[in-house]
Amino acid sequence: METSAPDIGAIRNSLTQVKDTPGAKTFRWLNYFGLTLLCFVTLYPFVNLIAQAFSSDAAIRTGQVQLWPVGFNLTTFQGVLTHGLFWRNYANTLLYTIIHVTVAMFLTTTFAYVISRTQLKGRNAFIGLAVFTMFFGGGMVPSFVVIGFWYGLRDTIWAVTIPGALSVFNLLVMKSFFENFPKELEEAAAIDGLTQYSVFTRIVLPLSKAVLATMTLFYSVAMWNAWFGSMMFLRDRNMMPVMMYLRNLIAGALAPTEVGDLQDQAQIGANIQAVTMLLTVLPIICAYPFVQKYFVSGVMLGSVKG
Hints:
This protein is mostly helical. The protein has helices at 8-16, 22-53, 57-61, 75-81, 84-115, 123-135, 140-150, 158-161, 168-179, 183-191, 196-204, 209-224, 228-233, 242-251, 265-303. It starts with 7 loop residues before the first helix and ends with a helix.
């Protein structure tokens, strides 16, 4: 018996004729209003930061700058971009982020894959040990003594990149992802003669791009914004990351006179913080769209256990 194809036009017309109840309309418009207000509150500080970065000294000091530049100028940008210390610190941040993410992803993927194997003896003990570190730590002074003096890492890049290289939250998310990985693929690879290491590197990791991209983003943003570890363990300004450069500007440890010419000091002093904030956040903003498509799927795949 032949069945007729559904009338798409009729279905569309029937759907358009369905009217919302007054309560549904009110709820929808309240959602629109609330989300619009939330977007404005979220975006306003950043838009204001951009406006101040390109505004004149007089406009900033008199409070005229809100959502667009007033008295457009590039004096501070020229002063910051020609300052050797800024670029040195910027290069340090890039180097530290690459090293930190490399070490962190190696530790996280290998540890998460191991504790995701139910046949591992002592598996619960390893998981418990990792979770324990989420709630209990030695504190700042013991960390400074152990890392700086016992291990002798003070004034080295390892004091900045190694501590905190393993995030337990990221570890647990990736562990959940590996637990949901199809066991049939691993079994088929084992039958074909692949070792456990080959299964991990040639089968599991290539099929885990979503969660790997998400964890890489988490580690990159955390390291790019980090400054406290550098303040504790580094004394040479030439080794500092760019966030310490920004922190010193805000705290007054780095004067605007070090950045530009004397005749431009008023302008540079007015918006140097806005310019530096904008320049330091740009790489993260530029990189985010490339991993955004993996972001939601990576977190959800690693947080829901089937």
